[in-house]
Amino acid sequence: KISQVKARQILDSRSNPTIEVDCTLENGIFVRTGVPSGASVGSKEAFELRDNDKKHFFGKGVKMAVNNVNSIIAPEIIGMDVTKQREIDELLISLDGTKDKSNLGANAILGVSLAVCRAASIYANLPLFSYIGGLGANLLPVPFMNIINGGVHANWQGADFQEYMIAPYGAKSFEESYEWGSEIYQSLKSLLKEKRYNVSVGDEGGFVPLVSSNEEPLDLISKAVENVGLSIGRDVGFAIDPASSEFYKDGKYILKNQNLELDSISMIDYYEKIVNDYPVVLLEDGLAEYDWDNWKILNDRLGRNIEIVGDDIFVTNLNIVKKGVLDNIANAVLIKLNQIGTLSETIDVVNFARQHNWGCFVSHRSGETTDSFIADFVVGLGLGHIKTGAPARGERVEKYNQLLRIEEFLSGKSVFAGKSILKKSNG
Ligand code: PGA
Ligand code: ZN
């Protein structure tokens, strides 16, 4: 039984306040969870409650959400059986009483939901991933590492596209994949220095070179991959998250970097060329969340060969994903727990997506804590791929490091997802 729930305000990786929740059980079990926060946020995401008190943290404080946990949620769930995750999540939803969790705050609710799960796993004497997914859970994901940052995560200094990720899918284990990723990251740093590019990093730990086109990062990374003796395409693929809602205005995609204004079809042509020229295996948010009808065209044209992932457009929301499946506008959904606000609702989205043969790509946020819940989550549910930034900065590597520990724990019994999760291998 839950005996204590206590939230506090801490800082995230961008120096913005966020919520941390402690949960204690009657038998003394103690756990803690941290809640992340996005910068390129979908308009239909569950509501992140902030104080808007300009005297503190420029209005970004979360003391109201903290207070909602401590004085509204805690008294209701103390005494409850910690293993009743769904019951507790449903109670949290009804205590809030709104559709978008704007009353108590999705940040307050998620912190509690995840703390309950973590505490229950210890009570059940299971590693978190096994508690989430059962004793058979053994699939280690391909890490999609974001090694060049652009867009809003780089203050619009470099590329227009927000994320250039490498997927070291040709490795035989997660450990080897992680090593390759780190070597490529270091090799890219050396290459950038050689070319007299800046090597400071963006919000997710990737470099921010002041490139002159949105393809140039792909050339730079290809070279960095070759420089460590790996083969681009065979060993390592690309994934791109342009986060295009951020540069979509009045029906046009504005690529400042190249002085281009493209309509939706020209934007799709642009991606098609990139996919033909480079071994891109996944494109996330290629079109804006307000461009629903053209997503279908994007998916028709590229979805047979690569994963077309919706982030801002689906916001891990079951009703929107259902409509997306019906309209056939993508073939995968990005999974961010804080977009919807409870573990149970997130699992519902995953189950629905899988029933319809859609991929589920698990994700961190650009503002993170050192909580590694999503690492256990991706293995527990066997979702095969995760993005959690560069193989650098504490809040990013903590998730990858946890995956390393899980692989070690499973010793010979783990399976590395590798190329099997991809639609196109380019091998
Ligand atoms: P965010 O970005 O966490 O800033 O929303 C991540 C993403 O767009 O995938
Ligand atoms: Zn995204």
TrEMBL record:
(2R)-2-phosphoglycerate binds at Q162, K336, R365, S366, K387. The keyword Coiled coil does not apply. Mg(2+) is required for catalysis and for stabilizing the dimer. Its cofactor is Mg(2+). It is found in: Cytoplasm; Secreted; Cell surface. The active site is at E204, K336. InterPro entries: Enolase, Enolase-like_C_sf, Enolase-like_N, Enolase_C, Enolase_CS, Enolase_N. Mg(2+) binds at D241, E284, D311. The keyword S-adenosyl-L-methionine does not apply. It catalyses: (2R)-2-phosphoglycerate = phosphoenolpyruvate + H2O. Substrate binds at H153, E163, E284, D311, S363, H364, R365, S366, K387. It comes from the Bacteria. Pathway: Carbohydrate degradation; glycolysis; pyruvate from D-glyceraldehyde 3-phosphate: step 4/5. Pfam families: Enolase_C (PF00113), Enolase_N (PF03952). Its EC number is 4.2.1.11. This is Enolase. Belongs to the enolase family.
